[in-house]
Specification:
Four copies of one chain form a homotetramer. With 104 residues, the first copy, chain A, is an alpha+beta fold. Helices cover 43% and strands 31% of the residues of chain A. The radius of gyration of chain A is 16 Å and the shape is elongated.
Chain lengths: 104, 104, 104, 104
């Protein structure tokens, strides 16, 4: 299981507002993100699950701005893939919080 | 005001566990992040505030793994800086959620 | 045609030297990068070509450190996909250089 | 000495062409990048040198699109900082090439 962060940004659309594109990406995730857990952040979307499923849905997200008229899209994907332990979104944050409390 | 995402990763430490380093970075933020709002995610830390203050504290975060014995550090910083509207962490997410509801 | 930058970094391998992993990724590209143009930089590899072919080979590159014993891998992918003009590696750089000369 | 990759992208400018902005960033580097070595790639600029000098010039690069009318700028910075060995742009690439030849 991997945890992946993705940001899809249209270039040259003439508007500084990205929320319509981000909302369209969220709807795409709702429709095609079966089996995945995802979370919207202020800087992108964090997705947890099988890496191949995640990359398949990210491929769809990258098309979203083109489907809404963009001619150039910049997408940044960061994969954190750990195979000696289950690294879920929840576990990763809990793990840090436990250390912060323990050493408070 | 900018919103910035930062991930600081030590290379070659011999352990796949990063939580001790992430926790140390969180403590650094608690001590030196005055005037900034920040939020831990599964993929890094999102910081909101004055860009120069943010970059100064990120400079400190980048040193944290070295202070804990690392010899090589990989840091990724993504800056989203919007100057025609206040782009806070909360506002950015609300803006997308409002669109999702409106078009539900 | 897209231009994509990829960096694949093993976490927790106990060595700060990444060149064995980078070399293994280059060999993977030589064997499975048919139809693609690629270029090693000091910070990763830039690949040009059909986006689906690029993503398929990047999926392979991400496995390389695991095949060499790593238990955790951090991969960063940046896609620049422009559809109203051919955006090759060469053309992108020439385009900037032409402007620099013109305005020198 | 660190090696850093930076990409500065204006959002909402109404044009998919980024070369005017990239050229303006290159001129900024020519004027304010003393003591640094830098190299334009198809995906950004790679800078080598003292980390604080690099971050200071990147702070300037981030302003360039705003000075040319942009209202929102997305900047991605990736720092590779190795302190047990000099990690220059040239040395990093040579190191991989030596391995590729040796194992050819």
């Amino acid at each position: 299981m991997a945890v992946v962060d993705v940001t899809v940004v249209p270039i040259g659309t003439g508007t500084t507002s990205l929320s319509p594109f981000v909302a369209a990406c969220q709807r795409e995730l709702q429709q095609h993100g079966e089996g995945l857990k995802y979370e919207l952040t202020a800087m992108g979307t964090i997705i947890e699950g099988d890496l191949d499923l995640i990359l398949a849905v990210i491929r769809r997200l990258h098309e979203v701005p083109f489907n809404h008229g963009a001619k150039r899209v910049s997408t940044v994907i960061r994969i954190d893939d750990r195979r000696n332990k289950t690294g879920s979104i929840t576990q990763k944050i809990k793990s840090v919080e436990a250390r912060l409390k323990g050493e408070g």
